[in-house]
Amino acid sequence: xxxxxxxxxxxxxxxxxxxxxxxxxxxxxxxxxxxxxxxxxxxxxxxxxxxxxxxxxxxxxxxxxxxxxxxxxxxxxxxxxxxxxxxxxxxxxxxxxxxxxxxxxxxxxxxxxxxxxxxxxxxxxxxxxxxxxxxxxxxxxxxxxxxxxxxxxxxxxxxxxxxxxxxxxxxxxxxxxxxxxxxxxxxxxxxxxxxxxxxxxxxxxxxxxxxxxxxxxxxxxxxxxxxxxxxxxxxxxxxxxxxxxxxxxxxxxxxxxxxxxxxxxxxxxxxxxxxxxxxxxxxxxxxxxxxxxxxxxxxxxxxxxxxxxxxxx
Length: 313
Hints:
By secondary structure, the chain is α+β, with helices and mostly antiparallel strands. It is 14% helix and 33% strand. The chain has helices at residues 34-51, 129-136, 164-169, 198-201, 295-303; strands spanning 15-20, 60-69, 78-89, 92-101, 107-117, 178-179, 215-216, 222-234, 243-253, 257-266, 272-284, 289-290. Strands 1, 2, 3, 4, 5, 6, 7, 8, 9, 10, 11 and 12 form a twelve-stranded antiparallel beta sheet that branches. Strand 7 (215-216) and strand 8 form a beta hairpin. The longest helix has 18 residues, at 34-51. It is globular and about 60 Å long.
């Protein structure tokens, strides 16, 4: 997660979850790890559905998650999630969440969640008409401060994904194949949704992948990648023992920012699991500020560049 201009959130939305940044949530950049932003937002979604009488306690899946990071959060910060319904159609119930530092009022991150009910086998089905009707009267307009930047919510990440065979032919594997471990799943053996980005980042990096670890630059700075925007579309979540592999490609590189897309596949069935889109900022850890991408890092990123795989409507 990278720093952005601190933006005041609106206090008009109801608080759906509170938390405090603890030591175990701090990552190698010295601030709260992105996974805990997701945990807070998922808690907000659960709270909204619990309060929505028309939902009726139905089991659900959050199959499309957009996150925009606004400001880094440090150890001991008290956080609150504020939430609102953006609208509903048979395709999904759409929710807005904003994560706020309680004491300062600064905006940590904003989210859009697309939610659908699922049956006993975990298969999505249309949002019932009574939910669509009930949420229409309480829907809010998307806040201007939560607007997307590089990522487009109109892009169809799943429908335009390359096949497993094409990714292999292009040599775009970023992680070695691995099996899903029990600690990634719940008591039923189903993969935990908040861990879905680890379908991309988990496991052992293949040779040539930068791996996202901090690196010393020639001028004495310590550089790492900080997430600015992400979008995750989920087709299916694996179970314990599923054999998976993740692939990735850069689709654009700028002075300080890279734009990448990653695909996770079930190797036993050949089925697509998730697509993860990410905009990352080159971040000077010691100076705690953005930096231009060093030439040697840029050269490595160029080796993964595949502009034709950029998300499309």
